[in-house]
Amino acid sequence: MSRSVLVTGGNRGIGLAIARALADAGDQVAITYRSGEPPAGFLAVKCDITDPEQVEQAYKEIEEKQGPVEVLVANAGVTRDQLLLRMSEEDFSSVLETNLTGTFRVVKRATKGMLRARKGRIVLISSVVGLLGSAGQANYAASKAGLVGFARSVARELGSRNITCNVLAPGFVDTDMTRALTDEQRGKIVGQVPLGRYAQPEEVAASVRFLVSDDAAYITGAVIPVDGGLGMGH
């Protein structure tokens, strides 16, 4: 069955891999993006999730063109890394505004249609950093850890309506962002990972595809690590 899917931040990296995996499975996939040219093959909607009006307009366009959102993957996020003593209040609050409050906005809006339909799948893309911590990323780690408490509360609220809400916590993934690191930096990171390599975006996407499938109908409130063993025990 072809479902109406929304992947926020679906124009590159992990988000694009997720959008492609769900489209390949037969779903109608909409993506949001903030800048640049979006990839072909999806209903691309320009939307900054820090703006409630843009979120509302994005949902209206998606609903008109492919129906109410049945599967939401909240992937959009930002980083503004800095050591704590040098981190400004704006550095901290802006990351939480996008990663945590922005996710709240898109989830809240999606649940309107899901509650009416009495079914839905929500997956929030967190990070191993939200569980493990990372020097210089107090803002990012706080925002990604916050997604866990948020998702589990949503799972308890909406479970009786056949709506699941789960969290995926990727580790280091081979994307444009990590390719910009030096060989020395990449080597240090890989040295911490028991499997000894970066994840491919498609490996993260495969786990999302499982969580939104019928096979995962009895999984909700879970945090699924896709991190090569980096964060085990957290």
From TrEMBL:
Q: How does it assemble?
A: Homotetramer.
What SUPFAM superfamilies does the database record attribute to this sequence? NAD(P)-binding Rossmann-fold domains
Q: Which residues form the Ketoreductase domain?
A: 3-176
Q: Which UniProt keywords apply?
A: Fatty acid biosynthesis, Fatty acid metabolism, Lipid biosynthesis, Lipid metabolism, NADP, Oxidoreductase
Pathway of this protein? Answer: Lipid metabolism; fatty acid biosynthesis
Q: Which domain of life is it from?
A: Bacteria
Task: Tell me which family the UniProt entry assigns to this protein.
Answer: Belongs to the short-chain dehydrogenases/reductases (SDR) family.
Q: Which Gene3D superfamilies does this entry report, sorted A to Z?
A: NAD(P)-binding Rossmann-like Domain (3.40.50.720)
Instruction: Please name the CDD domains in this protein's record.
Output: BKR_SDR_c
- This chain belongs to the protein called 3-oxoacyl-[acyl-carrier-protein] reductase
Q: Is Lipid biosynthesis included in the keywords of this UniProt record?
A: yes
Q: Which gene encodes it?
A: fabG
Q: InterPro entries, from UniProt?
A: 3oxo_ACP_reduc, KR_dom, NAD(P)-bd_dom_sf, Sc_DH/Rdtase_CS, SDR, SDR_fam
Q: Its catalytic activity? A: a (3R)-hydroxyacyl-[ACP] + NADP(+) = a 3-oxoacyl-[ACP] + NADPH + H(+)
Assigned EC number: 1.1.1.100
Q: What does this protein do?
A: Catalyzes the NADPH-dependent reduction of beta-ketoacyl-ACP substrates to beta-hydroxyacyl-ACP products, the first reductive step in the elongation cycle of fatty acid biosynthesis.
Q: Name one GO molecular function term.
A: 3-oxoacyl-[acyl-carrier-protein] reductase (NADPH) activity
Q: Which residues cross the membrane?
A: none
